[in-house]
Specification:
The complex is a heterodimer. By secondary structure, chain A is mainly α. Chain A has eight helices and two strands, in the order ααααββαααα. Chain A is about 70% helix and about 5% strand. Chain A has a two-stranded antiparallel sheet. In chain A, helix 6 runs antiparallel to helix 7. Among the domains of chain B are: about 60 residues; about 30 residues. The radius of gyration of chain B is 25 Å and the shape is flat. Chain B is mainly α. Classes of the chains: A mainly alpha, B mainly alpha.
Chain lengths: ~230, ~140
């Protein structure tokens, strides 16, 4: 085939060598996610991998719960709180759910104000989100303490029934609580940068949306834990 | 998901398509009185987020009431799963802006989790087998 001008131009560029050639060949000047900030695409891919992690936990929980012959402890009674003589089922868990949903709401508005370049409101809403997240972790610590000290739940057994209850509970809520704690630190770092005007020069508040994606994901996971572990 | 054809996508796409203000050089300092560069990124009215927040509160309350009134059997599981899916959909679509992303990103993120359904199905079959094996051979059953 007769070489065209374009072919000659392309061939005249020396091909990359070594590891650079791997990246160059695979990317080949291609961009899959058009007009999407690279950090946002990467955060989405990280969240996809995290989805697999949490689904593995929830699936193993399903497996042990379905296969055990011992009765499963009733979460409605285990997590009940008595307020003024009345025993309310799952009260603390319901409050924790509302706290986390509210933090998602403030975060969504922080992202919105970021794109409107309203620095103060963005930072304030992000700090509010972090405060609600810290409240959630605090309530979870209270819940764990109550379960360990008063109910005697251990990862290897409990007085209420199937011993798998404890290991599932500590593993799933522990991993989720770890995500919330990491998210609080992440939000505080980004929020203080926003407050100091770090992103003001570029006028690019994409970082806030990326942090928001992580935070909404933490809320999303809780939706599944609440339904499948506490309510089921 | 026909995000490219519905009205919401049109409303959002127009502001996003506006040229982004970029200073010609870092030395080109904007005068203090100049208007701020046009906002960019995703623009939605704050009311949308407040509305979704409200929906999430209502859905959470409803799923709490399922437990409060001690509903049992298929009704309980159907309601729990329905509220769960609705809440997850609202968070992903609106809060995480998935409804306005390009389809290539949407599919790259939302299609892979579908294979998790296979894992759940396989493990459900497996745990059923384990359960009956325990009942028959360990004699711990009812």
């Amino acid at each position: 085939m007769r070489p065209t001008a374009l072919n000659e131009a392309v061939d005249s560029v020396p091909p990359a060598q070594g590891w650079r050639s791997v990246a160059a060949d695979w990317s080949s000047d291609q961009e899959v996610f058009k007009k999407v900030h690279w950090g946002k695409a990467m955060m989405w891919i990280f969240l996809l991998s995290d989805t697999f992690v949490f689904t593995s936990f929830l699936t193993s929980y399903m497996t042990v719960r379905m296969s055990t012959t011992a009765p499963w402890p009733n979460p409605s009674e285990v997590f009940a709180l008595s307020v003024g003589g009345h025993t309310l089922p799952l009260l603390l868990i319901a409050i924790m759910t509302f706290v986390l949903i509210s933090s998602s709401g403030t975060m969504a508005m922080a992202v919105n104000f970021g794109y409107r370049r309203e620095r103060r409101k963005t930072a304030l809403l992000m700090f509010a989100t972090a405060a609600l997240g810290a409240t959630f972790v605090g309530m979870q610590a209270f819940e764990w303490t109550k379960l360990i000290v008063e109910e005697g739940v251990r990862p290897w057994g409990n007085p209420m029934g199937a011993p798998q209850f404890g290991s599932c509970f500590f593993m799933i809520t522990g991993f989720h609580g770890l995500h919330v704690s990491a998210g609080v630190i992440y939000l505080l770092v980004i929020a203080s940068k926003v407050a100091r005007g770090r992103y003001e020069k570029k006028g690019n508040y994409e970082v806030v949306e990326i942090a928001g994606l992580y935070w909404h994901f933490v809320d999303l996971v809780w939706v599944f834990i609440f339904a499948l572990f506490y309510l089921w | 998901m026909a995000a490219d054809t519905d009205n919401v996508a049109d409303r959002v796409a127009r502001p996003a398509a506006q040229p982004v203000h970029r200073p010609a050089s870092p030395h080109e300092a904007a005068p203090a009185t100049a208007p701020a560069p046009p906002a960019h990124g995703q623009q939605h009215p704050i009311g949308l987020y407040l509305k979704v927040w409200g929906y999430l509160f209502v859905l959470s309350t409803l799923s709490y009431l399922v437990d409060y009134f001690q509903l049992e059997g298929p009704l309980r599981y159907t309601l729990i799963l329905a509220f769960m899916v609705l809440k997850a959909g609202l968070i992903v679509a609106i809060f995480m802006h998935m409804a306005w992303e390009r389809l290539s990103l949407v599919y790259a993120i939302l299609v892979p989790p579908l294979c998790l359904g296979t894992l759940v199905l396989l493990m459900a079959i497996e745990s059923d087998y384990t359960f009956w094996t325990r009942i028959i051979f360990l004699g711990k059953g009812p």
